């Protein structure tokens, strides 16, 4: 990657998360560390052993990306790291840093853009989406929320939090999906409050 000097370690960590599909998949610390070693080895390797990752620098960089204002990453070591909605915006502004550049029309199968587009298409087909846009909000049930989030009542809390983060990233800049999600959040405020 060219011009790594112009980016902070926190920004490089965010770029690494994006390159590994961190818009839609929670990533492990070790995967991010290996990507950072690949794209910016001098900054993320041990001085005495340059082929080895300095995990302390990686952890601090990820933490800084989360504390940055606005926060570029969400999650953590336990749940995995994802781009925050602000992180997605920042990455989109960079354009040519990621493989495939900023060409949003070239959805390679398996790419982060393809994954997010597939998630959007799934959301458009949910019962909640249809009912809310048809003005039939009173007919919405908890099972419609589960279908929208693609969860069930047995999902562990951290998986639900990750699904909510993925949904937030997928619906960015889509007013109809944002409206449906806002309505669902209002209808199921109590159920969703524990995942904020």
Quote the distance from N terminus to C terminus: 35 Å
- Give helix % range: 55-70%
CATH topology of the largest domain: Arc Repressor Mutant, subunit A
Low-confidence runs: 99-109
| Total number of domains | 2
Question: Helix segment count?
Answer: 10
- Tell me which oligomeric state these chains represent: single chain
Number of strands: 2
Main CATH class of the largest domain: Mainly Alpha
What characteristic shape results from the CA principal axes? elongated
Amount of beta strand? under 5%
Judged by helices, strands and strand pairing, the structural class is mainly alpha
- Radius of gyration, CA atoms, in whole angstroms: 18 Å
Tell me what the structure shows.
- The protein is built from 10 helices and 2 strands, in the order H-H-H-E-E-H-H-H-H-H-H-H.
- The protein has 196 residues and is mainly α.
- It folds into 2 domains: 91 residues, Arc Repressor Mutant, subunit A (Orthogonal Bundle), CATH 1.10.10; 82 residues, no CATH class.
- Strands 1-2 form a two-stranded antiparallel sheet.
- About 6% of the residues have low confidence.
Descriptive tags:
single chain; mainly alpha; Arc Repressor Mutant, subunit A; 2 domains; two-stranded antiparallel ribbon; 2 strands
Short characterization:
By secondary structure, the chain is mainly α. The protein is built from ten helices and two strands, in the order αααββααααααα.
Structural topology:
Elements: H1 9-19, H2 29-44, H3 55-67, E1 73-76, E2 80-83, H4 85-94, H5 112-124, H6 127-133, H7 142-149, H8 157-170, H9 175-187, H10 189-193
Antiparallel strand pairs: 1-2
Helix pairs in contact: 1-2, 1-3, 2-3, 5-8, 6-9
């Amino acid at each position: 990657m060219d011009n790594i000097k112009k980016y902070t370690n926190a920004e490089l960590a965010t770029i690494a998360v994006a390159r590994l599909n961190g818009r839609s998949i929670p990533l492990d610390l070790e995967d991010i560390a290996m990507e950072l070693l690949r794209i910016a080895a001098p900054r993320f390797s041990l001085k005495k052993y340059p082929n080895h990752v300095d995990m302390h620098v990686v952890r601090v960089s990820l933490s800084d990306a989360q504390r940055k204002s606005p926060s570029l990453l969400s999650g953590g070591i336990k749940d995995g790291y994802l781009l925050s909605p602000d992180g997605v915006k920042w990455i989109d502004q960079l354009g040519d840093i990621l493989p495939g550049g900023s060409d949003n029309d070239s959805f390679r199968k398996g790419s982060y853009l393809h994954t997010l587009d597939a998630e959007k298409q799934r959301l458009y087909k949910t019962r909640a989406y249809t009912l809310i846009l048809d003005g039939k909000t009173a007919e919405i049930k908890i099972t419609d929320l589960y279908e929208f989030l693609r969860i069930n009542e047995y999902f562990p809390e951290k998986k639900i939090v990750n699904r909510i983060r993925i949904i937030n990233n997928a619906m960015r800049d889509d007013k109809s999906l944002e409206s449906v999600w806002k309505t669902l959040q209002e209808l199921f405020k109590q159920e969703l409050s524990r995942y904020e």
